[in-house]
């Protein structure tokens, strides 16, 4: 966060092919007990941290999964719960190896179909990222 600017954050729309050979697409959502919401993994950047590096770090911290970044997705701009302007950069990212371990920040993760993820997301702005991911994957 810049002292005179918005809170800077980054995250990913984390996806995988469903296990078991079905091949369907699944999107990972995280539940944050502090806010009782469902969102994409994201978080504030550390001082001097590049947005993509911060996004990958946050995915690993919140989901336990390493990931491979893909297309840049639309950024989000909004006022956070403390009344501060916030700017969040997002990327599509394919999940790699990992295992989720619950903690105080994220107590649950769900792997859902795109339609189910869109329905479960708390904030409408996060639903737009599901559509952006599908568009990006369709183009690649």
Describe this structure in a few short sentences.
By secondary structure, the protein is an alpha+beta fold.
Shape: globular
Any idea how many domains?
1
Which stretches are poorly predicted, pLDDT < 50 over at least 5 residues? none
Quickly give the structural class: alpha+beta
CATH architecture: Alpha-Beta Complex
Largest sheet: 7 strands, mixed
Helix and strand element order: EEEEHEEEHH
Strand content: 35-45%
CATH class: Alpha Beta
Q: CATH H-level name... which superfamily?
A: Nucleoside Triphosphate Pyrophosphohydrolase
Q: Count every beta strand, where a strand is a DSSP E run of 2 or more residues.
A: 7
Overall pLDDT confidence:
94
Helix proportion: 25-40%
Distance between the termini: 33 Å
- Which fold does the CATH topology refer to? Nucleoside Triphosphate Pyrophosphohydrolase
* Quaternary form: single chain
Total of helices: 3
Radius of gyration: 14 Å
Task: Describe this structure as you would to a colleague.
The protein is α+β, with helices and mostly antiparallel strands and 140 residues long. It has a single domain (7-139), classed as Nucleoside Triphosphate Pyrophosphohydrolase. The chain is built from 3 helices and 7 strands. Strand 5 (65-79) and strand 6 form a beta hairpin. Helix 2 (114-120) packs antiparallel against helix 3. It starts with 6 loop residues before the first strand and ends with a helix.
């Amino acid at each position: 966060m810049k002292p005179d600017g918005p809170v800077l954050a980054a995250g990913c729309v984390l996806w995988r092919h469903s296990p078991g050979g079905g091949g369907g697409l699944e999107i990972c959502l995280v539940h944050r007990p502090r806010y009782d919401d469902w969102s994409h993994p994201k978080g504030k950047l550390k001082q001097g941290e590049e947005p993509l590096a911060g996004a990958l770090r946050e995915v690993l911290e919140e989901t336990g999964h390493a990931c491979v970044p893909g297309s840049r997705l639309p950024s989000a701009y909004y006022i956070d719960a403390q009344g501060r302007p916030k700017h969040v950069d997002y990327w599509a990212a394919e999940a790699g190896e990992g295992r989720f371990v619950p903690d105080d920040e994220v107590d649950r993760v769900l792997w859902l179909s795109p339609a189910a993820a869109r329905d479960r997301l708390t904030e409408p702005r996060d639903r737009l990222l599901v559509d952006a991911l599908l568009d990006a994957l369709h183009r690649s």
